[in-house]
Oxidoreductase
Amino acid sequence: MRIFVTGASGWIGSAVTAELLAAGHHVVGLARSDSAAATIAGLGAEVRRGSLDDLDSLRAGADDAEGVVHLGYNHDFSDMQGAAETDRRAITTLGDALAGTGRPLFIASGVAGLSRDGTPATEDEPGDPASHPRVANAAAALAYADRGVRAGVIRFAPTVHGDGDHGFIAVLVDAARRHGVSAYVGDGSGAWPAVHRADAATLVRLAVEQAPAAAVLHAVAEPGVSTKAIAEAIGRGLDLPVKSVPAQEAAAHFGWIGMFFGLNMPASSEYTQRQYGWSPTHPTLLEDLDAGYYTRS
């Protein structure tokens, strides 16, 4: 299958590109810069120059493909609404291009904010658009199932971890270094879902190959690692003490990530694993932390 991938040079996208290529698919990766193009070409994929703002390049990429995986996103927390609007336009452009073809379109979303009462959120939880604008974008993508697109959503854990990850956990490590202490919020019982990057990439491939229209999949290997356990692992890696920070002081201590780290957001992938034969096999988040991937100099 010829698959057009946005975000193909990114942390998740590059792993997905490699996974799809290894399975015999032809990947065309969207690249907005020379460095992104070099990364995509280095993986063995075809390069299409463009960006999420360049709707003509998105339309051409989808028109020329047998399927689309939309992983690109501008993770600018200073303009979350603007990033979501860019994502919405990209989804609409890709969906319109594939309308009536029966071809797959799978987009990335997240499980954060789906759990309403502390129980693990399941794949049939629709989510509240007020919690994050990406929830509405996911609904817009699923609507293309009624327009002849095999459209679906892959909800990723907030931490897609592995050697080289510079996401949320790396930010927490930086905060621990600055303060000389590894902290958690409140009693540290908040649940933080996680998935290894390689396991996530496998699930994306399975979705493209198997999932029906309107499918929602959870890329979650661990339903919820306690935030206290994460802080303790960071403390071990940096040889720092571990302490609790009151919820009202989380933003001051951690910065912008404080509002996320204190959340209790467990999520289940039992249906996803059963339905698609997905069995995460790679190291857990705490194993990657103890391996030193996040705390070595």
Remarks:
- The chain has two domains: 2-159+195-221, 162-193+223-266+282-290.
- The mean pLDDT is 95.
